UniProtKB/TrEMBL annotation:
Pfam families in the cross-refs: SET (PF00856)
Composition skew (Basic residues), residue ranges: 20-39
PANTHER family: TPR DOMAIN PROTEIN (AFU_ORTHOLOGUE AFUA_5G12710)
Gene3D superfamilies with a match to the protein in the record: SET domain, Tetratricopeptide repeat domain
Residue ranges of domain SET in the record: 386-581
UniProt entry tagged with the keyword Signal: no
Domain of life the protein comes from: Eukaryota
Region of interest (Disordered), residue spans: 16-40
Protein name: SET domain-containing protein
TPR repeat intervals: 237-270
Keywords (A to Z) from UniProt: TPR repeat
Length: 792
């Protein structure tokens, strides 16, 4: 074997770390047993998780002081036989109908940057055994290097491999496949003595085709074919294309795209294969690759060629996927002019026009978006940037923030944005339960978080030009400061070669970015559905907004689009903040902000809370637990009244009006009073609910109903409360309306319904139609649907 040549070639491909072979001393394995890391239990409380992650860090610090040592050589046959056994076990489970990863998994994110170093790290390897994916995110297999030294290999975060079938893995990494690995880590085992080769990023894996110069002069010590697997991967472009077609017919888009990529590596000029790959990329939403392939075909063939017909349509769809609506529209129109009898482009042209209108005017059909979102969470809408810009803001972590570029009014639209990636309960595999512990924030993450990471990785993998949109987000002090401006300039589409990714996805940095910038979207169209598992989303432009519990802007989602509006009049040049959380208790807010890596919020609400003192904050937190208990509505009225008084007493007398937990407690007392059905109690409930609104920060009009009635709105403030979600106060207003309605005071009932409509209009930007949809269930329960339809 020409080791010098291998070293030169792998260096050229930036593979590494590469240690010259003559430094390798495999003959003297050191079988050092390390202390195992602390054990995780699935039922840990938040405090225990924080304690556990601390212990884990201590263990890690101790472990990483152990100096590098030669990697022990493990018997090749033993490794293969163990892997075959694991695989056979999973095959049996699959036959029985159970899925490979049905057990609960615990994953760690933001693992400290390190290398459990061994002196021998190899970067050119060949698959020896079938793969399995016993863990949700890792593909496990055995590989050998050219010298015949074998290792277990774990591939993390590879697209399409979380909870896929074993056959899928076989097709992706069939035995005999040659891989070149950038930055392989040879990890010390935490149990036993077998080191583990680990690859974290899919962009660190290069599939080496048989005609690659990298393989020239390379001989595998164990023979040209992998023993036990005489069926080597196909070696002709046609055979790969046929394989790709089969996968395509079975809707296995990634496998198809891989097979076509193998075919193109052998025959780069094959137009039909490139055309097929562009369609496979479109299905995968790898728009950059789809666009590039389609464009490549159009430059090669004449416009009359049948391939051009398909390529132009694919090019236009890829542009639409890339949100290049104007260019997409031009391409669809161009296509239509060549095929005037075909109506396929008509609806696409309409969609392009609608998106361009939304983007330039900020005018959306909110009601139809709301309706669509109830059927399908991910809705089609363009992004809109209102009068805001990102500016340097040295006193904020990450150094940036958002300011207004002109005076804005309450309710004005500041941003509409689709997520870069999102995950909802319905996206989670129902046979797997994965707990993710974040070592950075020392918290347990949502079940959706690990899948979110995979989705971001896959999106960049197939759209390398989007790398900076994510990697210019703040990743904490452990990484270079992000640029002062955002978003980064729009990049042009680049080719996507799945066999040799040209983009570098740094997983450790990406995990940190997710910790700092993750959103838990609050959906107007389906808050109930999200109780099963909190959704998770990466909204890149929205990530530029800093937090305040008493923010001057408010946000919510319709389907997966996030909408940010001014919650009060904001003068030009003022920082715009949004609430990252709306918890009533200071300690709960701290816990959520910890997940966003924000130690201390300096808003007025937090300042006042801190002035109340630690003892009162703790007491308030305990009282909240009683208020939240499922049994509270069946507790005697006197007990609920006493609880409300106790909560009120935890707030200092001199502080401002905003007391979110009192708001909640007052509303619970009002609900209890209303439940009695007694007219005196019902009247009293009105006072409690109006006080609750004041505790959220509303100013009531003099004629709010406490004294005489009148035609005007019972609310006198121009500010939308942001210490709570917009649904709570609207709900209270509806309860007040319902109580008046039951007391036969229809004029007052109508005024409070109008107040709820005003609140929804200002915060959601739409009129009666959307109001009726958002509150339909509540109005129905209150038997006020037709009254509301009549008086609004
Ligand atoms: C989603 S980012 C916000 C944008 C960030 N400032 C940037 O430059 O990219 C969240 C991070 O911003 C910082 N941040 C947000 N709100 C803040 C606040 N009120 N005070 C100080 N830093 C804040 C914290 O470091 C937090 O982890």
């Amino acid at each position: 074997m020409d080791t010098e040549r291998l070293a030169v070639l792998t260096a050229g491909l930036s593979l590494g770390p590469q240690v010259p072979r003559h430094h390798h001393q495999p003959a003297h394995p050191v079988a050092r047993i390390r202390r195992p890391p602390p054990r995780y239990r699935h039922d840990m409380t938040a405090n225990e998780v924080a304690q556990y992650t601390k212990e884990y860090e201590d263990w890690f610090e101790e472990d990483r002081k152990i100096p590098p040592e030669p990697a022990p050589i493990v018997d090749r046959n033993q490794l293969v036989s163990d892997q075959k056994q694991r695989r056979a076990h999973l095959e049996r489970l699959a036959i029985q109908g159970a899925r490979a990863g049905s057990a609960a998994n615990a994953l760690l994110m933001n693992y400290p940057i390190h290398c459990h170093a061994y002196l021998h790290i190899t970067s050119l390897v060949r698959r020896l055994a079938p793969a399995d994916s016993a863990r949700m995110v890792a593909v496990q297999t055995v590989v050998e290097d050219t010298e015949g030294i074998a290792n277990d290999l774990s591939i993390y975060n590879f697209p399409s491999t979380s909870s896929c079938s074993l056959e899928h893995l076989d097709a992706l990494f069939s035995p005999g496949t040659v891989l070149a690995i950038r930055e392989p880590t040879l990890k010390a085992p935490t149990q036993g003595i077998r080191p583990l080769l680990r690859v974290d990023s899919p962009t660190d894996i290069i599939f080496v085709p048989p005609n690659s110069p990298l393989l020239r002069g390379i001989a595998w010590r164990t023979g040209p074919k992998v023993a036990g697997y005489p069926m080597a991967p196909p070696i002709s472009a046609d055979a790969w294309r046929e394989r790709g077609d089969d996968h395509f017919k079975a809707s296995q888009w990634l496998l198809a795209a891989f097979a076509y990529s193998h075919a193109l590596a052998l025959d780069p000029n094959a137009v039909s294969i490139r055309l097929n790959r562009s369609e496979a990329y479109l299905r995968l939403k790898y728009y950059s690759g789809a666009l590039h392939d389609a464009q490549g075909i159009l430059t090669k063939v004449g416009s009359g060629d049948p391939s051009a017909y398909k390529a132009l349509f694919r090019l236009a769809k890829a542009r639409y996927g890339r949100r290049e609506y104007s260019m997409a529209q031009n391409d669809f129109v161009r296509w239509k002019s060549r095929h005037p009898d075909d109506s396929a482009a008509d609806s696409w042209i309409d969609r392009c026009r609608a998106r361009l209108r939304e983007r330039t005017t900020g005018v959306y059909d909110w009601s139809s978006l709301f309706r669509n979102a109830r059927r399908q969470i991910r809705v089609d809408a363009a992004d809109f940037f209102g009068p805001i810009e990102v500016r340097r803001m040295g006193h904020r972590g990450g150094g940036r923030g958002v300011v207004t570029t002109q005076d804005v009014k309450t309710g004005e639209l500041l941003l509409v944005t689709k997520p870069f990636a999102s995950v909802y309960a319905s996206d989670l595999p129902n046979d797997q339960f994965t707990v993710t512990l974040d070592l950075l924030s020392r918290t347990k993450r949502e079940r959706t978080d690990s899948l979110l990471l995979s989705r971001i990785i896959e999106k960049i993998y197939g759209n390398p030009d989007l790398h900076d949109e994510v990697f210019h987000l703040y990743a904490g002090r452990g990484y270079p400061a992000p640029p002062d401006t955002y978003p980064p300039p729009v990049a042009t589409a680049v080719p996507v070669d799945l066999l040799y990714p040209k983009v570098d996805i740094d997983i450790a940095q990406l995990e940190a970015i997710c910790t700092y910038n993750n959103f838990c979207p609050f959906r107007l169209d389906g808050p109930q559905m999200d109780k099963e598992a909190q959704p998770a989303g990466l909204y890149t432009s929205a990530s530029m907004f800093n937090h305040s519990c008493l923010a001057n802007a408010t946000w919510y989602c319709i389907g997966d689009i996030m909408i940010i509006r001014a919650a009060e009049p904001i003068p030009t040049g003022t920082e715009v903040t949004i609430p990252y959380c709306v918890e009533e208790s200071y300690l709960d807010r701290q816990a959520v902000l910890q997940k966003h890596m924000l130690d201390r919020c300096d808003c007025r609400l937090c300042e006042e809370d801190r002035r109340d003192g630690e003892a009162q904050l703790r007491r308030r937190h305990q009282l909240k637990a009683r208020l939240d208990a499922a049994t509270i509505m069946s507790a005697p009225l006197a007990e609920v009244r006493a609880l409300e008084k106790d909560i009120a007493a935890t707030y200092g007398r001199t502080r401002g009006a905003i007391r979110p937990l009192s708001a909640l407690a007052l509303h619970v007392v009002a609900e209890k009073l209303r439940m009695s059905g007694n007219a005196r109690h019902m009247k009293e409930s009105l006072q409690y609910d109006m006080q609750a609104l004041e505790c959220y920060g509303f100013v009531l009009a003099h004629d709010s109903g406490r004294s005489s009635s009148g035609p005007k709105l019972p609310i006198a403030s121009e500010r939308l409360p942001t210490a709570t979600s917009i649904m709570e106060p609207a709900d209270i207003m509806l309860r007040i309306a319902c109580t008046y309605y039951m007391l036969r005071e229809e004029e007052n009932a109508a005024r409070w319904l109008k107040a709820a409509l005003w609140l929804t209009e200002v915060s959601v930007g739409s009129g009666k139609e959307l109001f009726m949809m958002v509150h339909e269930e509540t109005l129905q329960r209150m038997d006020m649907l037709s009254f509301a339809a009549r008086v609004l």
